[in-house]
Write a structure and sequence with these properties.
The protein has 834 residues and is an alpha/beta fold. The relative contact order is 0.06.
Length: 834
């Protein structure tokens, strides 16, 4: 059988290891990773091989030549620009006139390819994918199969809420030539994103074969280190090079190791290396070919590439040192450090944890390096989380980070594009906003600075103007030491995960666009932005109906920017209004849970004292609301959601749909159904609910934390439109708010969180899916299992080592029982480990 080795990868996540060589040339135990792949192919009878190349192709061609060293016939297909996995194989179509195998040139495996080929033939498949069960499936394509192996579903690089299995696509395929008629020539086209979903939809025979051997996708630094440890621990059939001595020490030909050297295996010492007396090599040290290691030099869990020099008293712990490096006397290189090729570390320099030093750099004597010479250190597991980018002010979120982050964002946009920028009232937000404006301008992006305003107005101006996105900076609602940076797309919605990854990519690589002096972006200060927003608000409500009702309301502005916007609107609505905290204050932009409780109690007392129709608190961000009825009682978020759905269904014209998250009560369906309206269930994330607002058939979206969307006005949360729509509906209903709330049906919801290690989340979701195979299951977000009395939802948290469990039952006892039952099941799966 012929084979294709995909060897065009740049390996951007492995930089600086891949700064000046393609990823397949990265050494594993002193040999390029592609070396092992070619050996594996020859072992299983594939001697006619073509390698698809794109990034620095000549380095691979020079090293492997025509394949004589591997006793194979090696050809090459070179792309002028990246064509994706399927597109690159399409370029080699002339070489492939029979069933063929495709394998990545930058992953490490010892799979039994012969058994994979036999499986393919036995099943009569058009496509067979080699599958592997892994602990963390987030970075891979998840594949769900039937018992026969036929593929049911693909999910490419899922979030935790989409992980339904820990069985992933390894990028190893057996294919029939028939697939080429579905792959366009000369265009980017991917197997897992494009071709396989298309074939699945057409009903083609696609199969997955779960493999038992070793497989490691060497996608990042941690996986690169792990691959070495796995081989040295003999977890694979790949043999370390050299002669095996006692204590699992392998020594290459020509190596000169002094007898006094202290070695604790497993250790690999390359060919012609020289290890002087007094040196120390602790476990998992890999010393490259021709490396010189001087007296008292010490390595531990580290990899030193070929031709490098380790000076006396140098210490390298948990790091990688590239080729031709000069590590002078007394240098300390700590955990997670990568030193690029041809770099020089001056005497007694200290390179602290996780620093990345790119090739051809020099560190002065005695210098202490705490951050990358070019980039900032990572600091966080991921830049983006559920709250945008967040962290401690001037510690995690610094001016330097903000400027570089904005440059990364600007690099993803077309030059001369414009975005909207806004902030809350805090000086910290103003500081960060100014840094971000400078970063955006440096990449040729224009900015419209709204200064102090709500995120809702920012989103509104994006939707109604020419801007292609936006940034809103605010201190965290419940922590005055923390800050949040939110990015919006061209619809005013939170940006998608794909754009988040692009921003992170440019940020970590510091691969920013820098424009010429005459292309630097400009900053404008729109003069009539708030007036445009106010005008649109008034057009979106029935002013006359509200005026006739003459409401008496108590409004708590929570010291937010709505205090600058709403009083002018209320003047036109003929309302008697008592305003609380009706000014912006930089010291009051956050509120503790205790202060929030006290503020709601105060609002309740004032509503009761003034005999108001109702009270409302709009959070300092201007997006979410808390409602108090005419009797001074706090209306719970779920009650408020049910009420607004009832009122919207009754008084909005047309037959629009209602959208709510999966965690909302089935009472929503009952209420909407009584008016003949359909309900759409969305993922739990804010982004998902906002996306639902882009559907023209949806007229209302409601969350369970006080956030409501009226998409005919804005596809995002907005506290002001929620307030005004509530008045419009109450005026039409002609009934007190307390009476309407009391008329809503009863419901019983429960919710608990339980700890779940990151590496067990995929296992938990797979096992739960197996347990629930005979029940009605929804997999919109997490796993939602339905029964006669209600449902239970198990949802992995995307930002914390948690699983969130929700349930609805026929009684509160029943709902609590279901939550406890699934929490116990999750814990049992974690404890059993299988």
């Amino acid at each position: 059988m012929r084979a294709v080795v995909m060897a065009g990868g740049e390996g951007t996540r492995l930089r600086p290891l891949t700064s000046n060589q393609p990823k397949p040339m990265v050494p594993i135990l002193n040999r390029p990773v592609m070396d092992y792949i070619l050996d594996l192919l020859r072992e299983h009878g594939s001697t006619d091989v073509v390698a698809t190349l794109q990034f620095l192709p000549q380095l691979i061609k020079n090293y492997f030549g025509k394949g004589a060293d591997h006793s194979i016939n090696l050809n090459y297909s070179i792309e002028d620009f990246p064509l994706g996995t399927a597109g690159s194989v399409k370029e080699a179509e002339n070489f492939l006139d029979e069933t063929f195998l495709v394998i990545s040139g930058d992953a490490l495996t010892d799979f039994d390819l012969t058994s994979l080929m036999d499986f393919h033939k036995r099943k009569g498949a058009m496509v067979t994918i080699a599958l592997k069960r892994v602990e963390n499936p987030l970075e891979f394509g998840v594949v769900i199969t039937e018992e026969s192996g036929q593929i049911e579903r693909f999910l490419e690089k899922p979030t935790w809420g989409q992980v339904f299995s820990d069985t992933v696509n390894t990028g190893i395929y057996v294919l029939e030539t028939e697939i080429f008629k579905y792959v366009p020539k000369g265009e980017p086209f991917d197997f897992s994103k494009d071709l396989f979903p298309m074939l699945l939809e057409k009903g083609a025979p696609l199969y997955g074969c779960i493999m038992d051997g070793y497989w490691c996708d060497i996608g990042n630094f941690e996986q690169y280190m792990q691959a070495h440890r796995d081989i040295l621990d003999l977890k694979s059939k790949i043999h370390p090079p050299g002669i095996r001595m006692r204590d699992n020490v392998w020594i290459g030909d020509g190596a000169d190791v002094d007898l006094s050297v202290d070695i604790s295996g497993p250790v690999v010492i390359g060919q012609n290396a020289k290890i002087e007396a007094g040196a120390e090599l602790d476990e998992y040290s890999i010393i490259g070919n021709n490396v010189v290691m001087m007296s008292k030099a010490h390595t531990h869990r580290s990899i030193v590439w070929d031709n490098s020099y380790l000076g006396p008293h140098s210490h390298i712990h948990g790091a990688v040192v590239g080729k031709n490096c000069d590590i002078k006397t007394g240098v300390r290189i700590e955990q997670g450090v990568v030193v690029g090729d041809d770099s020089v570390m001056g005497e007694n320099a200290v390179i602290n944890h996780d620093v990345k030093i790119y090739p051809f750099k020099r560190v002065d004597e005695g210098a202490v390096i705490n951050s990358n010479l070019i980039w900032e250190s990572r600091g966080m597991r991921s830049l983006f989380g559920a709250k945008g980018i967040s962290g401690l002010i001037n510690i995690d979120i610094t001016v330097d980070l903000a400027m570089k982050l904005a440059m990364a964002y600007g690099t993803t946009l077309k030059k001369d594009s414009s975005i909207v920028v806004s902030q809350d009232a805090s000086r910290a937000s103003r500081m960060i906003k100014r840094a971000m404006i400078a970063g955006l301008n440096s990449t040729g992006i224009n900015t419209s600075d709204l200064r102090i305003t709500s995120a809702s107005i920012n989103r509104f101006l994006i939707q109604t103007g020419q801007e292609v996105g936006g940034i809103h900076i605010r201190t965290s609602p419940f922590d005055q030491q923390s800050m949040e940076i939110h990015f919006f797309d061209s619809n005013g919605l939170d940006i998608k995960e794909g754009l988040q990854r692009d921003i992170e990519k440019y940020y970590y690589r510091q691969d920013y666009r820098r424009v010429f002096y005459n292309q630097i972006g400009e900053t404008k200060f729109p003069q009539r932005s708030i007036e445009a927003y106010r005008s649109a608000i008034l057009k979106a409500i029935d002013i006359e109906k509200i005026q006739q009702r003459r409401f008496k309301v108590i409004v708590d502005y929570a010291f937010g920017s709505t205090a600058l916007t709403m009083p002018h609107l209320l003047e036109k609505l003929n309302c008697d209004v008592v305003g609380l905290n009706a000014y912006t204050s930089e010291s009051r932009t956050t509120i503790s849970p205790e202060q929030l409780g006290a503020a709601i109690q105060q609002l309740s007392r004032i509503v009761d004292t003034f005999k108001a129709d109702f009270g409302i608190m709009i959070d300092s961000g201007g997006e979410k609301v808390t409602i108090v009825d005419d009797r001074g009682r706090d209306v719970s978020f779920n009650d408020a959601l049910h009420l607004l759905i009832y009122l919207t269904c009754q008084f909005e014209r047309g037959m629009g749909k209602i959208a709510v998250p999966l965690t909302a009560s089935s009472i929503v369906d009952e209420i909407a159904g009584s008016f003949g309206r359909d309900v759409i269930r969305t993922k739990v994330s804010t982004r998902a609910m906002m996306e639902a607002a882009l559907d023209s058939s949806v007229m209302f979206i409601g969350a369970q934390a006080g956030g409501y969307i009226f998409p005919r006005f804005l596809p995002a949360y907005d506290g002001i439109i929620t307030f005004f729509k509530l008045m419009e509906y109450l005026a039409a209903a002609g009934r007190p708010l307390s009476e309407l709330v009391a008329s809503m049906p009863s419901y019983y919801l429960a919710h608990k969180n339980t700890f779940c290690p990151w590496d067990k989340k995929g296992l938990v979701m797979r096992k739960l899916l197996e347990i629930a195979k005979d029940q009605e299951v929804e997999m919109i977000d997490g796993i939602r299992i339905c029964n006669k009395s209600g449902w239970a939802l198990v949802l992995p948290d995307p930002g914390e080592p948690l699983v969130r469990v929700y349930a609805e039952g026929s009684s509160q006892r029943n709902a609590d029982y279901e939550v406890d039952r699934f929490v116990s099941t999750v814990n049992e799966i974690i404890e059993s480990g299988e």
